[in-house]
Amino acid sequence: MSAVWAVPLVTMAVTQVTVLATSIYLHRALAHRSIHLRPLADITFRVVLWLTTGLCRRQWVAVHRKHHTFTDREGDPHSPQLLGFWRVQLFNVVHYMRAARDPKTLETFAPDIGPDRLDRVLFSRGVLGLGVGLSLLCAILGLWAGLLVGLLHAVLYVFVLLPLINALGHWHGSKNFDNTASNWRLVAWITGGEGLHNNHHAHPRAAKFSVRRSEFDPSWPIIRLLAAARLLVITGPPVTWTGDAARRSTPSY
């Protein structure tokens, strides 16, 4: 395969794997405890995210839980209702880092997620993880193709897909439930189901984000497959779509 085709295809594959790992591991397993991962699955997701994002899991969980606690009101780290669509879409990483580096945020919203031995030895070294990941891309694709894939992946993940979930999901869109978040079904296809943001804010502990037949949560088939392989246990309650009654429901954050 020529580099002309390899670069976009590998970029899309790496970014989608990263998005799915973020949604399944950081979001559903850690932030909301809607699934419980067995050790093998847990380590696999941590390695994937270490190589592709370098994120600190405690910081991610704390910022996300703070967002749910103060959704679209003072204290929300990245609300387009407060900051405007473009400030969240273009500068979400700045707002995230500001909240993630606040010790009070970590102590208040993620007291249950402390560093373990693997964090202290390996996963806390995020820059190293990114360096290893980029080196693997260069070894497989060649120097310039690997560097280009790494750059494109960083742009897509950090400046396009992740901020789009909150910028668009709290700005405008369709609703199944009565809360300030919105659903974008097409966005859900490329964000591991995260575009179904209205559904998630109504039922944050649900492991499955889709509630209607016309909605698709790409993370859900993977979760079901891992559950069938006994690599995880689904602990969050199921959600049943009840039409008009659902629209009148009170969102639970």
Summary, kept brief:
This protein is mostly helical and 253 residues long. It has 13 helices and two strands. The protein is globular, with a radius of gyration of 18 Å.
Q: Could you walk me through the main structural features you see in this protein, from its secondary elements to its overall organization?
A:
The chain is mainly α and 253 residues long. It has a domain at 3-175. Strands 1-2 form a two-stranded antiparallel sheet. The protein contains 13 helices and 2 strands; from the N terminus they run H-E-H-H-H-H-H-H-H-H-H-H-H-E-H.
Biggest sheet descriptor: 2 strands, antiparallel
Return residue spans where pLDDT drops below 50 for at least 5 consecutive residues.
248-253
Total E-strand runs: 2
What order do the helices and strands follow? HEHHHHHHHHHHHEH
Strand content: under 5%
- The portion of residues assigned to helices is 55-70%
* Basic shape: globular
Q: What is the residue-averaged pLDDT? A: 93
